[in-house]
Design goal:
The structure is a homodimer of 343-residue chains.
Chain A lengths: L4 H8 L3 H8 L7 H14 L5 H8 L4 E7 L8 H16 L3 E7 L4 H10 L5 E4 L7 H7 L5 E4 L11 E4 L1 H14 L5 E5 L5 H16 L9 E3 L4 H13 L6 E4 L2 H13 L9 E6 L15 E4 L2 H17 L7 E4 L2 E3 L11
Parallel strand pairs in A: 1-2, 1-3, 3-4, 4-5, 5-11, 6-7, 6-8, 8-9, 9-10
Antiparallel strand pairs in A: 10-12
Helix pairs in contact in A: 1-2, 5-12, 8-9, 10-11
The structure holds a DNA duplex (30 and 30 nucleotides).
DNA sequence: ACGGATATCCAAAGCGCTTTGGGAGGAATC
DNA sequence: GATTCCTCCCAAAGCGCTTTGGATATCCGT
C-alpha cells in the first residue's frame, strides 16, 4: 500500500537520486522540480522508510535517556508531564526512545553503553545537581547531548535548556515584599537539585536587597508531593512567629500547603499569601484553586517538547537552535497574594 | 571497530548465509559449525546491525505504548516502576520504545496510527476498565498486542498478564476474618479500574462466605496516593462504628493510612489491623514500616519485565509463552495484623 | 551400483534509502 | 567558435542483513 522512493520517482519521471535530494533539501535541484516532488509526496502520502534511512545514513533516529531509578524522581507527576512533552514531539518526527532504567550508581556505565550501542543519536540528561559529574562524563562520550536544567559550579560550555529559577523566585519574593510581607517561608524541592538551590538563592537575594533575612526555620526541602506540602506548612504555622507569606516550588506542594492553611482556619490572600511555581500540569491548575494561586509559570511539557525539538533538529542538522536557553518564568498574580496582615 | 556479518563470515571461511542461519537458529546448519560461529561471535563481540535487520525482515524491533495523559495515571510511582521493568527488559534485547502520549479520547486514533506506522511490532495496553472498548479495537488492528490486567465483561480471548486480584484480597480478607475481625474496611484504587473491582469482589466473597457484609461506608476509591490513604482512613475512624481492620490497595495508600491511625493514637496490629497490596516499590518496603505490614505481594516491575519478555519473544518468534497469565499474589503476614480487639 | 533422499552449505537477489561520480545542456567567458 | 562553468539530473554503488533457489556431497535401499 505504502509507496516507496522508487515508485515515487517513477511516478514523477525522475530518478531516485533527485527525489531524495528534493526531499532532503539539497541545493542541486530545481525549485520547480522540488515543488512537484513535494506535491507528489502530499498526494501519495509517501513516508521514507526509517530502517532504510538508518541503514544508509548510519543515524539511529532515536534519542536515549537514562531513567533514574531513585526515590522521588520518577515518582511524581512532573516526570510524566515532562516525558509527555518529549514523547509528543519525538513521535511527530518518527523518533524513538531508548529508555534505560538505571540506579544512580550505575549511571555512568549505562550512559557509556547507550552511547556505544549505536542505537541512539543523542542523549538526554536531567535532574541536575550541583557539580554534577555527569556532564563531564557526557562530554567525553562524543555523542551529542542536551541537559534539562544546569549544573552549578561546572563550566557552562554544554548545551542546556533551563528556566531562570533564580529570577522567578526573586520576582515572586519581591512581589511579596512589596506587599509588605516580612516573614516569608519557602517550601522547596529536594535540596540537592539545582532548581531548588537557585530558587532559594533568588528568594534570598530579594530579601537581602530589602534588608530582610531568611529564617532557616522557614525553609523546607522535600519531594514535591502534596503530602510534604501539607506537613511543611503545618510546621510553619506552628512556629512561634509564623510566616505571612510562603513560596512553593510546585503547585503540588501548594495543594498540601493550602490544605494546612485552611485547616488552621486562615484565609489565603489575607492572613497568609501564597505563590507557587506552576509547571502547568494539566490536572492541577492554579486558577482552579479555591483561592486562585499566584504563580511563576513555565510549562514543563513545553520544555520536554523543546528539548526533543532541539535534539532532533541537531541530529537531522535542520534548523539552528541556540546551544543554551534560559526560559523566563512568568509571574502571574492571582488572588492568593495580598497585602501583609497588620500586626 | 565493530565487525559485521561479512567480516565474520570471512573470518570463519563460511558464507554470510550460513552464519546468519547459525545465529538465527535455522536447522540446516551443522551443529559443529554452529558452535564455531557462536564462538566467533563471542570472540569478536559481533552484534547484528538492527537497522539492517529491520530493513531485511520488515520487523521494527520496537514496541509501542500509548501513554495516557489523564489525571492520576502517570502521576504515581506505580507507573514509573512498571515502566522501569518494561524498559529494563527491552534494553537487554535492543528493543526500542515508541511512547505516544494521548488523551483518552484520542486513544483510538493514536493506536491506529501507531499500528499503521510500521514503527512498532506490537502494542501494549494497560489501565484496564470494565468492558474496555480498547481490546476490541486492538483486535481489529492486526498487530500483536498484550494487555496488562484484564477487562471485565469482555470475552477472554486476548493475551494478557494479570495478577489474581480477586484471590489476593479474598485471602487477605479471610485472614482478617480468621483473626476475628468483623468490620473490615477497604481503601481501594480508582473504581473504574478492573483491579479495584476485582479486589473488592474478592474481599466481598470472603465476607459473604463468613456471613459478614461489606459496609458501603467502609469503602473508599481514590488515586493511590499517600494523601488519599490518609483521608480515607480518617473518615473511617470518624465513623460511629469504626473498622477493626483495613485492606489497602497499595503500600502508598497504606502509608497515609498508617499516619491517620497513629494520629488517632491507635496501635496497628492491636487496635486495628492493616493489610496492603505490595507492588514491591523499592522505595517503600512494607517490612520497613514502623509496624511491618502484612501484604499481598506481586512485583510490578517484574510484571513489566515479563510483559516485555513476552512481547519481544512473540516478535522474534522465540520461546513459547502462554497467551494468558494470571499471577498469584503472595500473602505475607507481618506484624500489622493481629486478633480483633475485644469489645 | 544407481536413483533418490538428506544434510550442509553457498551465491546472489533483494529490503529502501543515501551518496558518489559523472553527464548533458545551456550560459558565460575569452 | 571554442572553452569553461554552472545547473540540474541520473546510474549505480553501497549500508548490513535475510532469504530464495540452488549446488555438492553423503548415504540409503535395492
Amino acid at each position: 500500500m505504502a509507496v516507496n522512493l522508487k515508485q515515487l520517482a517513477e511516478l514523477l519521471g525522475l530518478s531516485q537520486t533527485t527525489v531524495s535530494r528534493a526531499l532532503n533539501g539539497y541545493p542541486e535541484v530545481n525549485a520547480e522540480t522540488r515543488q512537484r516532488v513535494l506535491q507528489a509526496v502530499r498526494e501519495t502520502g509517501y513516508r521514507p522508510n526509517r530502517a532504510a534511512q538508518r541503514l544508509a545514513t548510519g543515524r539511529a533516529f532515536s534519542i536515549g535517556m537514562v531513567m533514574p531509578i531513585a526515590p522521588g524522581i520518577d515518582s511524581d507527576v512532573h516526570f510524566g508531564e515532562f516525558l509527555a512533552g518529549l514523547a509528543e514531539e519525538a513521535v511527530k518526527h518518527d523518533f524513538h526512545f531508548v529508555l534505560n532504567p538505571s540506579a544512580p550508581e550505575d549511571e555512568e556505565v549505562t550512559f557509556r553503553r547507550l552511547a556505544a550501542s549505536g542505537n541512539v543519536d543523542a542523549l538526554f540528561l536531567a535532574y541536575m545537581r550541583a557539580n554534577d559529574p555527569r556532564i563531564a562524563m557526557l562530554k567525553s562520550l562524543s555523542i551529542p547531548f542536551l541537559v534539562h536544567g544546569r549544573s552549578i559550579g561546572e563550566s557552562r560550555d554544554y548545551p542546556f535548556l533551563d528556566i531562570d529559577n533564580t529570577s522567578a523566585f526573586y520576582d515572586a519574593a519581591r512581589l511579596l515584599i512589596q506587599l509588605g510581607h516580612q516573614r516569608i517561608a519557602l517550601i522547596n524541592g529536594p535540596d540537592y537539585l539545582t532548581f531548588s538551590i537557585r530558587r532559594q538563592k533568588g528568594m534570598l537575594r530579594a530579601l537581602t536587597e530589602h534588608g530582610l533575612t531568611l529564617d532557616e526555620a522557614l525553609v523546607e526541602h522535600s519531594l514535591m508531593t502534596d503530602e510534604h506540602g501539607y506537613r511543611s506548612m503545618q510546621r510553619f504555622l506552628q512556629h512561634a512567629q509564623p510566616p505571612t507569606a510562603v513560596l512553593c516550588s510546585s503547585t503540588v506542594l501548594a495543594l498540601g500547603a493550602v490544605r494546612a492553611i485552611n485547616q488552621a482556619g486562615l484565609k489565603i490572600g489575607e492572613d497568609i499569601s501564597l505563590i507557587a511555581h506552576d509547571d502547568v500540569l494539566p490536572m492541577l491548575k492554579p486558577e482552579n484553586f479555591s483561592v486562585p494561586l499566584t504563580t511563576t509559570r513555565s510549562s514543563l511539557r513545553a520544555a520536554g517538547a523543546r528539548i526533543a525539538t532541539r535534539l532532533i533538529g541537531g541530529i537531522l542538522k535542520r534548523g539552528d537552535y541556540p546551544e543554551q536557553e534560559l526560559w523566563r518564568a512568568e509571574l502571574i498574580v492571582r488572588a492568593s497574594t495580598g497585602p501583609a496582615p497588620q500586626k
